[in-house]
Each structure stands twice: as C-alpha cells, then as structure tokens.
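User: Fold both of these, please.

Assistant: Here is the first one.
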Amino acid sequence: KSNSFCTLLPVLWTLCGMSSATLVLGHPYASPYHNGSAVDVAVIVDAFSRLGGHSITAVLAVFVIVIPLYLAANEAFAIRRGERPGSFILATMRDVCGVVPLAPPPRQAPGPNEADDDDAALERHRNRWRLGAARRAATTSPSASPELPPGHHGVRHLAVIMDGNRRYGKERLGSGLRGHEAGGNTLRAFIGWCADRDIDMLTVYAFSTENWKRPALEVSVLMGLFRRFFEKIRREAREEGIRIRFLVSDPAPLPPDVLALMRAVELETQGYNRLVVNVCVSYGSRMAVTNAAKRLHQSGVEPSDDTIRRELARSLCDERPAPLSLSDCEVRMESGRVLDLAADPDALLRSSKEQRLSNFQMLELSYAELFFVDELWPQVSEATVDSMLDTFAHGRSRRFGK
C-alpha cells in the first residue's frame, strides 16, 4: 500500500498542485507552449503503468479519466488567463506526438505575480558573461601570453558527463522523467559559468547511443525536451556569441525534426567565438572512432593520431571531405587565443558519484584529469565548478608520461 501511495503522488501533484498554483500564483503551466505539459502527461502514464502494468483498468484510468481531467483543468485556467480556447490541449497533444508547431503564438506578457522564466534566466546569463568579460579585461595585461592569461586555471576544454537526472527527479520531483527537465536547466546555467570562467570549449554528453535502449516513454520525453532546450539555447547563443556544435555518431534514430533543428542551430551559430559548446547526441565513442576510420579509409588516407582526432571533432554539419586539416579545425576566439576544435579535453567532470567513462570521448580523454563529484547533475553549482578548477590548477600535476 505504501508503494502504491508513493507511486500515485506524482499524479495527485499533477492534477491538484499544478492547477492550484496556476489559479493562485499564475504558474506558467497554464501557458500552452510551456514544455512541462508533455512531461506531465508522461508522468501520469508512467505512474499508472507502474501501478497497473498494461491491464485494461490502468489504460482506461489513464486515458479516460486522469489525462482528460488534467487537460480540462489546465485548459480552463488557460481560458481564464485570456488564451485562445483549445490552445493548451492542442499544444500538449503536439508535444506528446512529437510535432513542433511551425509558428508559436506571441508570448503573453507576464502578470504582476508571474516571473518570465526564460527572460530572467537569459538576463542572469548575460550578467555573468559581462562580469567575466570585465574581469578578464582587468586581469590581462598587454604583455600577457596569448595562450593563457595570468592566473588562468589552465582548463581550456572541459568535458562533462551529466549524470543523475533520473535519480534527482525520483528523489526530489516525484518522477524520474521530471529530472531530465531540471538537468536541461542546469546545463543552460553551466554554459554561463564556463563562459564566465574563461573556458574556451565545453563538450557535454547529452544522449548516448546506448540511451536508445531506455523505455520508449522516457526516450519520447527526452526528444521533446531536446526540442525545447535547443530552441532556448538557440536564442541565448545568438544573444551571447556562443557557438553550438553537435557531435553525432549515429544520426539514424533521431527524429527528423530534431535533426533538422540541430542542423539549424549549428549553422546559425557557427560564426560565434565566445565559447564553443559541443553537444553529444546519439553519440558513442566506439562508433565515433569506427566512423572516423571508415571516412579516412574511403578517402584513401592512412589513419594517424592527428587525422583520427580531427575526424572525431567533425560536427553534424561539417561535410568537408576527409581528412580535415589543422587549419580546418582552428578557430580564433574572442579572447584572442586560437582554439583547436580537435583539442583533447583538459578535464572531465562527472556528477552523481559514478566513476566511469560510459563510452564517452574515450580516445580524447586519454590524458584528461578526471573529477567525480557526489552531486546529481541538477544539483551541480558554481561552487562545484570553482572547486574543480582550483584543484586542477593547484592540486594536479600533468606530466603526460614524462
């Protein structure tokens, strides 16, 4: 009974808590294009499937009673807020079915008690980046080395395994599915922290080739969250001069609209040079190395350490013939330093206590300093980053076999 009650908690919270918050506090779940709606429906289905398996009773309870109640309640609150009748239900169904509306309606102005989360988050990122630029200008002298300014921590390329989203969701939010949304918000903040700390390149493990083996419901929710996350980061990247690249070793399973959106984001931001962010989606290190060797073999080029590494750095939209040259991979950063897009990570950060690479950048991480922290990914903070950078600068000695 105790387990059943705990399993029902997310459903009760969804139906009651969210609707009450919408009515009393102006909670954004009443917005027809808020990315929580599809997650809410998935949480309801997930909770009832764990309660009743695939029985007829459970299916009827979900699709005939619970989800219609949730949709009706939020639709009523949406109409009360002046939104078009049917907009919430239609948008939620589009989210669940994996279809992105071509032209979202204009954003509603926030009410007196309602915070505009996207704009507030963007402004926080802007402030952090402005402070970082001011700090760099104040601490870098004209005679400083163009490679590393005085007092730099030494991490130019940081790799991150964002682990622990599901556990965080189960422990804190009532459902593992909600943890993925929290993890996406942490990543957006993390990008700002890296820009503020003068890191040139960030490579994050967003979705592995092995993740396709997860339950279909979870994968569907993740693809929906990717759509929303890529749209948000697309705007923030344009505003702040961040270049987004996608490293994909197996594009075939990705939904066509997600793949098209990834290509659009990469092409739109390829001219920016404040920070380079590599997002690994449907990525596996073993497959990436195999693909690189195949491209070189088909081009009649003998694989070498340099040619393999440059092929591994090839992004989703990079269709230049193999092999890539050194000049193909060099980028002049806003700081004045030259970044090699094929450069190995200096450090790896992995959250949630796990201490393994999980088929991520295994060749590139050969000489990286490894940092494993106890925090689940949504719990990672600026203090976590500062502690890692301080340890890298003062507590590690990199000898590269010498």
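And the second sequence with its predicted structure:
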Amino acid sequence: MDLLASLNIDALPEQQTRISDDRVRSALEKDPDIKLGFNACCNCGCSIDDKTSVACKGCKRVLYCSNKCRAEDADPPPIPDVGDEEEMMPEALGHSSIMCALLRLCDDDEDADERRNSKNKTAAAVGKETNKQNADDRVRSELESYPATLANIITDGPCYQEVLLSSSRSKRKELVVHVIGASYEAELWYNLEDAADAYSEALENLAITKKVRTVRIIFIGPECPKDDVNEERDMGNNTRLILETSRQNYDKSLSTTAANLLVFFNPGFTCPDYDWGSALSH
C-alpha cells in the first residue's frame, strides 16, 4: 500500500521548500500541477521522462533530470540565514533523508502487498531478508486492525449495546453489520478465506458474551470482488460468522439483508472513488 497514497498525498512535502529556487519557482508558475521528483526534476523542476530520468540512489523513486542535478540536491550550497547574515545554513533539500527512508519502506510494503495478493512467495523484495519480514509484519498488522477494531467498537461502544441486546433477543439471534465502501485490498485482506478466519477469531468473544448466535458481515463497495462471496466460519459454542460481499454502491438500489449496524473504515482512503454522498443520504 503506497505510503503517499495512504496519506492522501500526491506530492512530496518538500515541494513547498523548493520554491526559493528560481528554476523551481519558474517551473511551478508555468505548470502548478507538476510533481517534483515524479514528473519534474526534484532539483531544478524541469520536465523529465522515464527514458532520461535519474533516480535517487536510496529509494529509487524520486527522479532527477541528470546526475548533476541529483548530486546538487544531495549537497546544496549554503545560503545566509535571514536572522544573521554572518551565519550560514544549508538550503532545504528537495528530497530529505526522512522522505527517502519512508519511500524505501513504501517499496518493501508494496512487495509485501504483492506477495499476499499473488500468493507468490518468490516475489522480489527490496532490501535484506529482515526488511522483507518487517514489511510482511507491517502489512499484516495493518490488515488485522480492521477485524480487531470492528470487534472492539461493537463490544464496548455504549451506543451499540441496545442493538446487541435486541439482536440477542430476536428469533434468529443474528447481528447484521454492513461495512460500507469496503475494498478487497483493505478490509477484505486480498484473500477472502484469510479475511473470514481473521474476522471469525476477532468476533468470537463478542458472539459468545453478547449471546448472538450469528454475526453476518456484509462488505459493500465498488472495489469488492466482482463475484459476490459467502464465507461461513464456526466460532464455537453454537455461534457462527457469515462473511458476504456485494460489489455496488450503498444507495437505494441496494438489495441485501437489512443491517443492525453500519460501519465504514477510513472513508476516502481505502476506497477513494466511493460516492459517499449517496451512501450517507441513503
């Protein structure tokens, strides 16, 4: 999962620190939409393409128009401090060491995503074996946060207790949860069998302690699998989890089991193109 995209950032934060450079300022005046380090040289702001660009040696993501610009950006000339002309301070780097390190993590995490998505255990990983394992752990930890968060907020949230009590007293003793704007790459773990196992483990205690016989989670969104899925897990003590998916928007055309609870994770991030207006009005 791309770090910049996950933070809803499409440009390097350092882009704002380079406007003191006449070349960069001129390039931004001509085209305010350029992205330094991606479609424009991170040092001088001139346009670049994949054939002629030179990448940062560290992260291999940020681009320059030439080796000269890359070297200049790594060793900028000092400029006078506004407060004291006798003291000298380095000019702000176009590509800081912090962003370079974060983008290297980005590469590792994307490799981990690819391995999980493709189940290809031989997929190439950036860096050493420890980096590969750390990336796998970060991705799994992020994915595990979805079922864990869902279980915690439903179990302990004061506003949900009446709903849980009503579900336990109903004839079917079923709790139905709609997860709106769900994505195959986030809430559904890239793998529905693994997702069902994770949600089953996280919600087992809720089902038993709240005396709910069935927990039915329906993931709804345009980034759910094309073919609707129905996975069922035995959670023990005569309780079960049913995981369903529905590839559609949450609007008046929705045709699925009515919900007791509505949930959405990170609206605008996991499924950025989702139409939240129609979902909220519905």
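Residues 85-92, 123-127 have pLDDT under 50 and may be disordered.
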